[in-house]
Design goal:
Helix content: 55-70%
Strand content: 5-15%
Structural class: mainly alpha
Oligomer: single chain
Number of helices: 6
Strand order of the largest sheet: 1-3-2
Distance between the termini: 22 Å
Number of domains: 2
Number of strands: 3
Largest sheet: 3 strands, antiparallel
Shape: globular
Length: about 160
């Protein structure tokens, strides 16, 4: 049994329970602890989804910074796409670009791909090992290294510390 996975799953499930119930009443907390522990013990002993997550103070700080960077990129890309919709004269140059990542962790790569997809104007089509194929609303460069720098690097440096 992977105790780390069970503990992390328990904490996440309990937090969601408390958020969904919007109450800190003792009976809500007690039932959340029981339900979260039961689910974590039943589902997570064999899963390895959290095994690559680093639980260090530096990783916690980088997680917070990553969320800020992601939110900033989300705002910027929303404004860019909104301007393109509202002003059809703005040029678009859609296309698929190949980018490379240095992330070794499966979870880190998955979060990177989802972060790219969640920012408007980009969409992760496929991921093969360290290569991602991204649909980009306004392709600025075709070179793999330059496209990787433009799309991936801003997220990657934080995910490397969090997931390895």
């Amino acid at each position: 049994m992977k105790v780390k996975n069970v503990i992390i799953a328990f904490i996440i499930l309990l937090l969601f329970w408390l958020l969904l119930n919007n109450s800190m009443a003792p009976e809500i907390i007690a039932s959340g602890i029981v339900a979260s522990l039961a689910i974590a013990l039943l589902v997570c002993p064999k899963c390895d989804v959290f095994s690559e997550l680093k639980l260090t103070p530096k990783a916690f700080v980088y997680t917070f910074i990553y969320l800020l960077v992601f939110l900033w990129e989300l705002v910027k890309s929303n404004i860019d796409v909104a301007l393109r919709v509202l002003s059809p004269s703005l040029p678009i140059n859609p296309g698929i670009v190949e980018v490379k990542t240095t992330l070794k962790s499966k979870m880190g790569r998955m979060i990177l791909a989802n972060s790219i997809t969640l920012t408007p104007g980009t969409f992760t089509l496929e991921m093969k090992e360290d290569t991602l194929f991204i649909h980009w609303i306004d392709v600025k460069v075709q070179d793999v290294d330059q496209a990787s720098k433009e799309i991936v690097r801003k997220f990657e440096k934080y995910l490397e510390v969090i997931y390895g």
